[in-house]
Amino acid sequence: MEILRIYTDGACSGNQEKSNFGGWGAVLEMGLHQKELWGGQADTTNNRMELTAVIEAFKALKKDGLTIHVFSDSAYVSNCFREKWYKSWESNKWRNAAHKPVENQELWKELLALVRKNDVTFYRVKGHVKLPAASEGDLPQSSQLQQLYEKFLSWNGTGFSYEDFIYITQMNHKVDALACRGISEVKSHVAE
User: Fold this and answer.
1) pLDDT tens track of the chain, all 192 residues?
2) How far apart are alpha carbons 46 and 187 in whole angstroms?
């Protein structure tokens, strides 16, 4: 069984300010094939961009019924699925534990509809991890990286090797760069 891996990230320059710019990035990966996606939006939030990254990745799929692993550095996104927050939201008519309307519910509803067409597992990734230089052919090593690897395993289970962790971290850097590209593009369009 082939697994489609999706790596996503969202970013926002000036988050919570009146005039801000957001970007999102995603990489879809199956075997040796990769597809990069990115975009941006003015007047948004970081959480909206995190959700948009996953939504746009799923909208790019040409068929349903896939086995998909999603890697996100957004606890907001990954914990919703891992801890099944959406079930209580739905049963409470899209109200949270404080009995207030769930934020970004139009995006959550869109994402849930897309996810439910596939067999999806969400994994949490630590964002903005600095990888030390390594000799060619060697994996980066440090005591801090080892601690982050152990944290990654505590979040996601022991089915990942250290090499997997480094690769996933590198892919998180890649989608972060795509999200920044989305911010740059939307800023340049607004400036025109």
Assistant:
1) 799 999 999 999 876 666 789 999 999 999 999 999 999 999 899 999 999 999 999 999 999 999 999 999 999 999 999 999 999 999 999 999 899 999 999 999 999 999 999 999 999 999 988 887 776 777 878 888 999 999 999 999 999 999 999 999 999 999 999 999 999 999 888 766
2) 16
Give the CB-side neighbour count of residue 173, counting CA atoms within 13 A.
Answer: 9
Neighbours of 162 (CB within 10 A): 16
The CA-atom distances, in angstroms, between 110 and each of 45, 51, 52, 184 are 17, 10, 10, 26
Q: Which domain CATH number covers 112?
A: 3.30.420.10
pTM comes to 0.93
Residue keyed to tokens 């090499």 = 163
Structurally, the chain folds into a number of domains equal to 1
Q: Which of 40, 32, 27 is nearest to 187 (CA)?
A: 40
Cα 109 to Cα 60, 112, 120, 154, 172: the distances in Å are 17, 5, 16, 29, 25
The amino acid at residue 187 is K
What is the domain extent for residue 26?
A: 3-191
